[in-house]
Amino acid sequence: MDSVITYGQFWLLYLVSALVAYWCWGKLLFWVKTPGVGYYLFSLIGAVLIFTPVPIEQGSMYWAPGFLVVAFTFLISGPESINYCIPWFAAALAIGAVVLGVGLLVSLIRMKDVSDDSEAGV
Prior knowledge:
The chain crosses the membrane at residues 6-25, 37-56, 62-78, 85-109. The protein is mostly helical. It has one domain (1-121). It is built from 5 helices and 2 strands, in the order H-H-H-E-E-H-H. It has a two-stranded antiparallel ribbon. Strand 1 and strand 2 form a beta hairpin. It is elongated, with a radius of gyration of 19 Å.
């Protein structure tokens, strides 16, 4: 936990940069007029890649953005050494999938309520 406090200003800088990167990620599908489930799944993958922190090596108390850890560990140690990162990305993907599912369910319920109100003449 000390590493998070010690490097707080760098994590804040990364958070601002990550928000800009996530905005750019969303603009990759600029031609989509009406976002559907595929668009939201694409956004989920971007959020997981950009915002997931991972220890810099297995058992380390120092953390870094996951995509950077995977890239540098892969380059330095080879593909078998990045296996410890998989649970971190899987957990982030599971949390994101739950949030996405709840959001889509709420959106579906709202659309159903609006269509029911318009059919009733309200």
